[in-house]
Every structure is written in structure tokens, then in C-alpha cells.
């Protein structure tokens, strides 16, 4: 009996069929009613509900969402009583796919329904590997269910995506994970009330697991196995078992805002060591690394600016890398970006410049665009003076044409004044020369 057959047996009322399977497998929902979160997919009459049942249409599906949000669970539920084969795109190839398809075709010829082929991490299949699935999906030799944590618009080939129903799973809330843990403690399929879970220990698991239900159940199982004769899971036991400090950090409370504030202010203040300390607190507490990366991108533009234009490039590259590789390796990327930005020269003059320009516009100090700068590419523009006497900058000495660019009402206005920090020292000299050529 394979694991999926055992899960079916358990769903029919024989939980011991799963034997020593991991807690996360034993607690896999047996019906849609047991699924936590994803309420946008579970409404009555939704496409997902129509896919479940013996008479459900053979529709291929792509499930897109973060880890531990229920993609594999939904694949099992959609499969129902049909034959279910799971492949991982990390280890499987075209040969494995063709073997499943050929077997399904033989079963269809004998009157059975098509096989449900679940491909986990389908984004890791190459384009040619994904193309190999097309005939099977097109002819309904298999019902494909692909799971991905990457945007399928970029990671799944268009022909395959167009033949599949795309279902987007949202990150689970802390209340959802807490409900999963409570059920696992009490349910006979799980721990069967053999241990009690204290609130502080539960909260610690929630912080470390983030929005990943599978990770939360794996942590709970590990801690429960270490519980002593009292059979009580305490915060101290959770801390010792997970080898992670119990950090006071509520991702929706004061600690969330206080720590990220201290982190940003430390980077802005060029204190590399303090910045790394606050970064470590967020990493250990399970803060979303994409949130940290986004804040670094904002800081690079706001607080470093033209003093080191490479800062924004580094921050954006870090954000892309964190989204691509995830955690725990993402901590290295975040640390590299943090140390670079904290060490970089600082300037907020670009930030102040755009705000000053916006303030003028909102105050009505906009004026009309000078005629020589107006669009002259359409028929009749020249007759009304558009583009007249415009001087092409590349034909002028030093590539700077001495003409007025601002509206008349703003003539002589200055918004950007560089500092003497980093690259802006060079800009100060260059802008002084350019503004002289422009008569400013």
C-alpha cells in the first residue's frame, strides 16, 4: 500500500493505515471542509469545488502559491478516487512523464479513468520537458496538476498554461496555522491529545514556521517527541528543540514595526553591526524576507540615492535573489545588501528634489511647456510653432544645448542640490558647469 492509498484508507475511517507517516501527512485534509485558509477558492460553486467528485470533469490545473499553503492537499482532493501519481520536477524527467502517460492510456483502454499526474515544482521543468506534457493534456490522457511557487506566467509555457485552470493560493494567516496545530494536537490521526501545547510554545512555532503549515506540523511533531513525562509542550522545550532563541516578535504588533524601524535607521546611520543585529532578529523570528528586501530597495533610493547609484542596483538584485532562492539561503543575500548599503555614502537629495518638484506642481506652479520642447512629430505641428528653434543637444558643445527647458513661471528653479558625499561630489562639479551653460 503506497502513501496515497494509505491516506485514502485513513479518510474512510482507519487512521492507523498511515502508520508512521509524518504528522503533516497524517493531518492532510480529507475534504475541502477541513482545508484552512484559501476561502476565495472554497466558495460554493467555485471552479475548485466543481473539480472534486467522481463525476468531475478532467480539467488540468496549475496551483500557484507559497510553500505550505495546501497545493499538494488540493491535488489529492481533486484526484479523488482516480489513480494518482506524484512526480517532483527536481528529480523527474521526460522519461518518467512518458511512463505515466503510457500507463494511463493503457488504463483508459480498459475502461478506467485517466490518471491524475501531480508535478510538484513544475516550474523546474525545462521548456522541452513541459512541452512533452502538451499532447497528454490536450488529449486528456492524464489530468495534470502542477504546483509552483513561481509566477506561472513566467515559469510555465504558454500552451500548457492555456490548457489548464490557474488557481492562486494565498499565504496562510497565523490564525490558520494555529487552527492546524490545534487540530493536530487533538485529532486521533495526529497526536490524539497525548500532549498539551502551551500558548507561548504555539506562538513560537508560528513565528518560526511563518505561513508554512507543513513546516509548523513538522516542528510540532519534533517538539512533541521530546516532551517529558508531563507531556506538555512549553516555550522552553520549543526553544531547546528547535535550537532557535525565543524572540519576542509579533509580525502584526509593535515588535514588527520597532525592529524594522531600528534596522532601517541603523543602515541609514551607517552602523553595519547594529543593522546586522536587527536583520538577524527578523530572520530568526521568521519575518517575510521579501518585506525586508522591499524596505532595503526603498532605503537605497531614499537615503543613499546618487551618493552611490549602485546601491539601488544592489538592493534590487537582492530583492530578486531572495524571491528566487527563498530562505534560509536568502539571509546571506540580505546580509550582503545590508552591509553594502550601511557602508555606502548617504544622500537624500534626490528624494527631497522630487518632493519639492511635486510640491510646486500641486501648488499650481506648473506653467506651460515651452513651444520649442513640444511634440512636433505629427502633421500640422510646425504650423502652430511646436518644435520651432529646438536645439538638438548632441549637436551642441559638450552635449549641452543652451536653451530654456523649464516653463516660464519656473525659470531658474532648482530642485536637486547634490551633497559632497560619494559620487555626488562629482555631480556637484558637473552640475555647476552644466547650469552655467544653461544660464542658471
How would you portray this structure in words?
- This protein is an alpha/beta fold and 440 residues long.
- The protein folds into 4 domains: 38-168, 3-Layer(aba) Sandwich (Rossmann fold); 174-242, Helicase, Ruva Protein, domain 3 (Orthogonal Bundle), CATH 1.10.8.60; 254-343, Zinc Finger, Delta Prime, domain 3, CATH 1.20.272; 359-437, Orthogonal Bundle (post-AAA+ oligomerization domain-like).
- The protein is built from 20 helices and 7 strands.
- Helix 12 crosses helix 13 (235-242) and helix 16 runs parallel beside helix 18 (330-343).
- The longest helix has 16 residues, at 94-109.
Approximately how much beta-strand content do the residues carry? 5-15%
| Cα end-to-end separation | 83 Å
* Poorly predicted parts: 1-17
Number of strands: 7
Quick recap of the structure?
This protein has 440 residues and is an alpha/beta fold. The protein has helices at residues 3-11, 23-26, 47-50, 71-79, 94-109, 127-131, 134-138, 152-155, 158-162, 174-186, 199-209, 213-225, 235-242, 254-268, 272-285, 289-304, 310-325, 330-343, 349-362, 424-437; strands spanning 61-64, 84-88, 115-120, 142-148, 165-168, 196-197, 232-233. The longest helix is centred in the first third of the chain and has 16 residues, at 94-109.
Amino acid at each position: 500500500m503506497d502513501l496515497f492509498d494509505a491516506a485514502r484508507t485513513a479518510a474512510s475511517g482507519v487512521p492507523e493505515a498511515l502508520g508512521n507517516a509524518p504528522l503533516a501527512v497524517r493531518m492532510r485534509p480529507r475534504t475541502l471542509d477541513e482545508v484552512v485558509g484559501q476561502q476565495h477558492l472554497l466558495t460554493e460553486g467555485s471552479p475548485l469545488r466543481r473539480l472534486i467528485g467522481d463525476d468531475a470533469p478532467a480539467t488540468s490545473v496549475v496551483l500557484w502559491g507559497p510553500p505550505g499553503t495546501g497545493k499538494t492537499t488540493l491535488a489529492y482532493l481533486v484526484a479523488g478516487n482516480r489513480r494518482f501519481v506524484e512526480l517532483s520536477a527536481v528529480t523527474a524527467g521526460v522519461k518518467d512523464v512518458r511512463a505515466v502517460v503510457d500507463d494511463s492510456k493503457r488504463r483508459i483502454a480498459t475502461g478506467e479513468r485517466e490518471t491524475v499526474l501531480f508535478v510538484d515544482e513544475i516550474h523546474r521543468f525545462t521548456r522541452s520537458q513541459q512541452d512533452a506534457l502538451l499532447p497528454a493534456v490536450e488529449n486528456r490522457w492524464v489530468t495534470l496538476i502542477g504546483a509552483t511557487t513561481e509566477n506561472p506566467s513566467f515559469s510555465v509555457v504558454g500552451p500548457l498554461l492555456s490548457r489548464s485552470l490557474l488557481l492562486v493560493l494565498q499565504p496562510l494567516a497565523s490564525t490558520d496555522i494555529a487552527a492546524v496545530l490545534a487540530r493536530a494536537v487533538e485529532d486521533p490521526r495526529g497526536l490524539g491529545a497525548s500532549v498539551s501545547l502551551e500558548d507561548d510554545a504555539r506562538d513560537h512555532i508560528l513565528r518560526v514556521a511563518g505561513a508554512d503549515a507543513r513546516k509548523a506540523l513538522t516542528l510540532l511533531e519534533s517538539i512533541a517527541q521530546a516532551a517529558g513525562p508531563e507531556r506538555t509542550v512549553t516555550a522552553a522545550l520549543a526553544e531547546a528543540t528547535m535550537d532557535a532563541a525565543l524572540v519576542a516578535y509579533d509580525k502584526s504588533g509593535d515588535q514588527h514595526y520597532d525592529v524594522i524601524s531600528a534596522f532601517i535607521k541603523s543602515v541609514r546611520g551607517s552602523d553595519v553591526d547594529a543593522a546586522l543585529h536587527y536583520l538577524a532578529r527578523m530572520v530568526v523570528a521568521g519575518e517575510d524576507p521579501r518585506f525586508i528586501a522591499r524596505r532595503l530597495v526603498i532605503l537605497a533610493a531614499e537615503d543613499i540615492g546618487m551618493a552611490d547609484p549602485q546601491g539601488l542596483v544592489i538592493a534590487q538584485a537582492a530583492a530578486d535573489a531572495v524571491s528566487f532562492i527563498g530562505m534560509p539561503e536568502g539571509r546571506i543575500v540580505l546580509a550582503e545588501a545590508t552591509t553594502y548599503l550601511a557602508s555606502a555614502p548617504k544622500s537624500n537629495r534626490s528624494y527631497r528634489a522630487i518632493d519639492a518638484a511635486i510640491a510646486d506642481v500641486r501648488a499650481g506652479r506648473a506653467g506651460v511647456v515651452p513651444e520649442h520642447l513640444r511634440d512636433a512629430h505629427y502633421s500640422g505641428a510646425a504650423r502652430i510653432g511646436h518644435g520651432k528653434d529646438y536645439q538638438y543637444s548632441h549637436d551642441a558643445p559638450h552635449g549641452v544645448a543652451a536653451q530654456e527647458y523649464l516653463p516660464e513661471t519656473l525659470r531658474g528653479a532648482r530642485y536637486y542640490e547634490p551633497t559632497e558625499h560619494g559620487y555626488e561630489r562629482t555631480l556637484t562639479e558637473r552640475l555647476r558647469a552644466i547650469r552655467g551653460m544653461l544660464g542658471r
